[in-house]
Amino acid sequence: NAGVTQTPKFRVLKTGQSMTLLCAQDMNHEYMYWYRQDPGMGLRLIHYSVGEGTTAKGEVPDGYNVSRLKKQNFLLGLESAAPSQTSVYFCASRRGLANLVEQYFGPGTRLTVT
Amino acid sequence: GENVEQHPSTLSVQEGDSAVIKCTYSDSASNYFPWYKQELGKRPQLIIDIRSNVGEKKDQRIAVTLNKTAKHFSLHITETQPEDSAVYFCAALINRGYSTLTFGKGTMLLVSP
Predict the structure, then answer these.
(1) What is residue A46's predicted lDDT score, i.e. its pLDDT?
(2) Judged by CB atoms within 8 Å, which residues 1-40 of A form the interface with B?
(3) What is the pLDDT of residues A28-83, one digit of tens each?
(4) Which of A41, A111, B62, B97 has its CA 20 to 30 A from that of B79?
(5) Is B3 in the A-facing interface, judged by CB distances under 8 Å?
């Protein structure tokens, strides 16, 4: 099993450009999450999904959109990138059962917006 | 919503010493408390977790304690080694419905040989 994978690993964007980050998991997990990590700020939740076709806002959703068309994939979109979106983005997933709450993280995507 | 405070933000110890990182949470309904270790440039990885029906859990050199009354939990690392150097995050989860993990801001642990 590959676990949780993210594409791309690195990206540099100019202000105003758009891009999509892809998260894929092969563990048949119901729940998926997108976080951003900034120095001294910990991990902040952007959006999450509890199942195919459903998404919800997290703590810092502005400027991002998400889609979960397939259970194994969770896409994070930036429609018009801003320098404030320079960050490391982590995807995570877990089972949807109350007794299986461990979250597994992907390797991260380092995004720089100039 | 839940709020998790983590202290200290940095911690320097000598190899062989013990290290303690403390977290407090605000919502008494939180009932799952994981700790993640993140090495430089890597993903966060779960190292130990505890549920609210347990007061302490150990796994070799690491242990976590939970005080539900005071709403705080701590990570204890004994006999620290240079490879323990990393950023450690605590988190709390209200395990009902579609609730999400709330993370502390992290502690950078530096273990000097």
Answers:
(1) 97
(2) 31, 33, 40
(3) 999 999 999 998 888 999 999 999 999 999 999 999 999 999 999 999 999 999 99
(4) A41
(5) no
